[in-house]
């Protein structure tokens, strides 16, 4: 990957530079192969010669039966134009246009070099010969710029790891333009007021994901992971997921529920008629009422198995939730609680074994609960 990754302070503040490993892309995308036949794929946050998304699609172009692959990158990206290959390919490249963003448009991939297989050398040769196109963008490569938006209109499926800081707007743009997509995002996006309704309406869902929702990216930022979790040259980021609106097998598979309900193990909220289930694996198979589960439950959500009622972090998304009330706050304080809670808050509170707020809960209901055990 690129050597020079110096960032200006604005870029550092936005923290958008996380480059996805090819192996992670391969692991996720093998579940979507059937969707790509005859399609135009657009990677719109991807330096054609640095992004592993571009690499994945160009090297699997024929296997997936793609019609066209388009990749565009952003001026702001510290890796835009840093890779030598681009300067090898584009005549007249100078220091001046080094940071200019490019577009790559691929419609044919074959063994141009005649060495017996297709690799990135063939891709480079196909650009040089003009059979595919690699040219500077007119604008800055912002995914919202007119030229990138016209590529978006042409595309069937958008696949990338977009800037985390623009995730809301990014997804809204794709949904508005009725595009299929497979994207990497942070798990906190689940509780964004712009994203949760899309999950609730079955317009988007989560993909297969990273082990333990932890991803390792190539990045210019410092890795703060403890040494046992550190991977040389990579940065560890927790809470990373794939978001998609393409159908995958996993989302039709029921979660296996092994626990049974009993009133001692499952506490009810004080201000809402639902039980709190702090670990999704503990969802009781025989509870017919409402349950509050952590947001990571969404990685196992099957809309045929569960109804998605609301999210405690999305204002007014849970019908019927009451304010905590002054009594609750007084008892919480009497127990030494120091959180900035007020009587008017509608966070979900429990009082057993002590008063506390159950944070970031998704409220669900099992559509087909098992019959409770007799006695
Ligand atoms: C999380 S990184 C991922 C890069 C690449 N897609 C990958 O997975 O390796 C997001 C990239 O989007 C770029 N970016 C930031 N703002 C953008 C914008 N408005 N339009 C397009 N790309 C943008 C960043 O510079 C960064 O390189």
Query: Can you list the ligands bound to this structure?
Result: S-adenosylmethionine
Q: What count of domains describes the coordinates?
A: 2
Arithmetic mean of pLDDT: 91
Question: Beta-strand level of the residues, as a percent range?
Answer: 15-25%
**CATH hierarchy, class of the largest domain:** Alpha Beta
What percentage of residues falls in helices of 4 or more residues? 10-25%
Sheet with most strands? 8 strands, mixed
Tally of DSSP helical segments: 10
Shape: elongated
Would you report the number of β strands?
16
CA radius of gyration: 24 Å
Could you tell me how far the N terminus lies from the C terminus, measured between alpha carbons in angstroms? Answer: 63 Å
Major sheet: order of its strands?
A: 4-3-2-1-5-6-10-7
Structure write-up:
- With 375 residues, this protein is of the alpha/beta class.
- The chain folds into 2 domains: 9-251, Rossmann fold; 274-366, no CATH class.
- It is built from 10 helices and 16 strands.
- The protein has helices spanning 9-14, 22-29, 52-59, 61-64, 84-89, 120-128, 146-154, 167-176, 196-200, 326-334; strands at residues 40-43, 68-72, 102-106, 133-136, 157-160, 180-186, 205-206, 214-217, 235-238, 240-244, 274-276, 290-294, 306-311, 348-350, 356-358, 361-366.
- Strands 4-3-2-1-5-6-10-7 form an 8-stranded mixed beta sheet, sandwiched between helices. A 4-stranded mixed beta sheet has the order 11-12-16-13. A two-stranded antiparallel ribbon has the order 8-9.
- A hairpin with a 5-residue loop joins strand 14 (348-350) and strand 15.
- The chain is elongated and about 75 Å long.
- The relative contact order is 0.11.
- It binds S-adenosylmethionine.
- The site of S-adenosylmethionine (SAM) has 21 residues, from helix 3.
């Amino acid at each position: 990957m690129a050597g020079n990754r110096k960032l200006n302070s604005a870029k550092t503040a936005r923290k958008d530079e996380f480059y996805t490993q090819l192996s992670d892309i391969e692991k996720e995308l093998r579940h979507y192969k059937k969707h790509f036949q005859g399609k135009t794929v657009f990677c719109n946050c991807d330096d054609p010669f640095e992004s592993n998304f571009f690499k994945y699609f160009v090297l699997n172009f024929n296997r997936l039966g793609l019609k066209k692959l388009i990749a565009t990158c952003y001026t702001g990206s510290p890796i835009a134009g840093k890779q030598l290959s681009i300067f090898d390919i584009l005549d007249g490249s100078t220091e001046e246009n080094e940071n200019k963003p490019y577009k790559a448009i691929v419609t044919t991939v074959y063994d141009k070099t005649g060495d017996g297989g297709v690799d990135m050398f063939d891709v480079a040769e196909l650009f040089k010969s003009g059979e595919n196109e690699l040219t500077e963008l007119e604008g800055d490569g912002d995914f919202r710029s007119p030229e990138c938006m016209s590529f978006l209109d042409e595309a069937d499926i958008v696949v990338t790891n977009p800037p985390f800081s623009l995730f809301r707007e990014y997804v809204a743009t794709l949904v508005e333009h009725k595009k299929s997509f497979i994207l990497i995002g942070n798990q906190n996006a689940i509780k964004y007021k712009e994203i949760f309704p899309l999950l609730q309406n079955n317009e988007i869902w989560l993909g297969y994901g990273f082990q333990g929702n932890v991803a390792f990216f190539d990045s210019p930022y410092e890795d703060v992971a403890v040494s046992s979790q550190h991977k040389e040259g990579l940065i560890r980021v927790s809470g990373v997921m794939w978001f998609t609106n393409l159908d995958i097998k996993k989302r039709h598979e029921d979660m296996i529920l092994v626990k049974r309900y009993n009133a001692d193990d499952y506490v009810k909220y004080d201000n809402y008629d639902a039980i709190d289930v702090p670990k999704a694996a503990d969802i009781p198979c025989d509870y017919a009422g409402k349950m509050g589960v952590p947001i990571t439950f969404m990685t196992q959500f099957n809309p045929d198995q569960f109804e998605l009622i609301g999210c405690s972090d999305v204002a007014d998304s849970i019908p019927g939730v009451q304010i905590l009330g002054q009594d609750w706050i007084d008892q919480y304080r009497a127990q030494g609680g120091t959180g900035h809670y007020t009587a008017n808050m509608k966070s979900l509170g429990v009082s057993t074994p002590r008063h506390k707020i159950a944070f970031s809960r998704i409220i669900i209901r099992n559509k087909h609960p098992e019959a409770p055990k007799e006695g």
